[in-house]
Inverse folding.
């Protein structure tokens, strides 16, 4: 029977899945109502790319919670937890890759304006990151294959598979931190310049969009770093019994990151509507 720790993980997963599902429904509604009216131009194709990446992040997050829930309800005397671990890492890799692509496409113009010398380096990072992210399930898959005899699933931090898994996740975390650090510097620099401007009324629609992207981008990055800190704590400092609990909490923080990105989309749509309305009034 599942112990109290498993029960707590299951409850967090159910709550997280419900919140993420609600977020996905809201996103679909926004896409249908607002983006469905777009004409098939190059700009709308970019907009569709934004929507696809955001949808993948949210759906992958639902998959993470479903996999973690499956891990928590199965007895730890068969291979099911190993398989759930592999599936969780696959969904995590998909979510992280989509986050990188989404952030790059959404923020590249701000980066080119504020820190043009970093554009090529970030572009390389964007191409390399998904490869490293999708290496994360391999150690768990190897453990599932090598474990020919059923036995209790225990987190032993001296186990070579755990060390390999932690190393790959650590490399993924370093890439994510490097990417987020550059974007955070870009956003904070733009916000500092914007707040120091003397005449804010002369800002155009594009600069206001940059302002929205920078504000929500900073919030998303802070939450993402908090998530990585929880991952690091679970791997390095948490007890073996509490390891999966902290990992599940970290996945829950990812849900808030996707919520912030969804609110960014809503704010950009609202700003675009206000800008179009003001042009009509002026004309």
């Amino acid at each position: 029977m599942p112990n109290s720790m498993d029960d707590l993980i299951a409850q967090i997963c159910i709550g997280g899945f419900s919140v993420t599902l609600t977020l996905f429904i809201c996103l679909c509604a926004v896409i249908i109502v607002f983006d469905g009216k777009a004409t098939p131009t190059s700009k709308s194709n970019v907009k569709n790319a934004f929507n696809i990446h955001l949808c993948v992040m949210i759906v992958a997050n639902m998959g993470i919670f479903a996999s973690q829930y499956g891990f928590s309800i199965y007895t730890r005397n068969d291979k099911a937890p190993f398989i759930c671990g592999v599936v969780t890492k696959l969904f995590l890799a998909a979510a992280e890759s989509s986050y990188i692509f989404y952030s790059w496409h959404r923020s590249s113009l701000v980066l080119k304006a504020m820190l043009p010398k970093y554009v090529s380096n970030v572009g390389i990072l964007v191409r390399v990151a998904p490869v490293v992210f999708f290496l994360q399930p391999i150690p768990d898959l190897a453990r599932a294959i090598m474990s020919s005899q059923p036995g209790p699933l225990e987190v032993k931090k001296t186990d070579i598979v755990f060390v390999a898994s932690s190393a790959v996740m650590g490399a993924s975390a370093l890439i994510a931190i490097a990417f987020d650090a550059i974007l955070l510097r870009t956003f904070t620099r733009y916000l500092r310049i914007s707040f120091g401007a003397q005449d804010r009324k002369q800002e155009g629609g594009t600069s206001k969009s940059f302002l929205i992207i920078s504000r929500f981008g900073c919030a998303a990055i802070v939450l993402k770093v908090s998530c990585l800190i929880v991952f690091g704590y679970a791997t390095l400092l948490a007890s073996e019994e509490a390891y999966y609990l902290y990992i599940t909490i970290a996945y829950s923080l990812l849900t808030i990151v996707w919520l912030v990105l969804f609110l960014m989309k809503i704010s950009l749509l609202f700003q675009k509507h206000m800008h179009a309305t003001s042009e009509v009034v002026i004309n």
